[in-house]
Amino acid sequence: MATQGGIVLDTTVASIVLAGGKGTRFRQALSTDGQKVLYSVGGKPLIRYTTDLLVAELVDHIIFNVGYKAEDVRDWVKEQFFTQRVSFSHQDEWSTYNAVMNALKRSDAANVVLCNADEIRLGLDLRDVLAFHRQHGRMMTMVAAERDHLSRHRVLQIRSSDNVLLGTEYTPARFKQAPSHKGYVNAGILVFGGQASVLFDSHHSTTGWGALLDPLCRRREIVVYKCSQVNFFNVGTREELDSAIKFLEDA
Fold first, then answer.
1. What is the rounded CA–CA span in Å between residue 111 and residue 100?
2. Nearest residue to 89 via CA among 170, 159, 176, 17
3. Are 23 and 30 in contact (CB under 8 A)?
4. 5 bridge partner residues
5. What is the CATH number of domain 2-250?
């Protein structure tokens, strides 16, 4: 453990990987009933783009949240060679809140890295994100990427003076008429300490991230890590999938 001013700091990190959603829009677009996170893009399953970020020197424990097609995800995880402690949690409701709260029961780490497993973030270094989180001292850090086609994403309102999150808009329709307009969007990774989860509130959202974000955003306890150089793809629609495939083919 690290020390600061003679005080021992608990720097243990667990990661919750959200791999239990149904991915309904994605499956309908591709006419498949498989688990979205196992769909191969650029020669590897989507979930691998997330687990590749969770290197053992940074993350002590990976908790895979499963639900839809749970056994397929479990089988994939068992075939990998993760050197960290690995465990599973199961969501019994189709909500992010339920998935996260169930997964947190498996962790005693001081810090949690929560990740969507169906997104691609090329060029992101989790080491920098964790250092940023510890430096800024807010309850939560959100990783943000700069993107166009903002109507496909959760768009962020960020205070310029200190990068504190002021609010979010989920897939705002007004940007459909301005697809080239750019802004910062949620890149599907949150870092937080255990004290933050006490404030999570399912009344803010029955399905999405609002249950986690809204209570802390109101308290101005979310700081945004801007990564403008990261190539981010929220593979929730056919359009985003096609964009990711083209980028990877051209890279």
1. 14
2. 17
3. no
4. none
5. 3.90.550.10
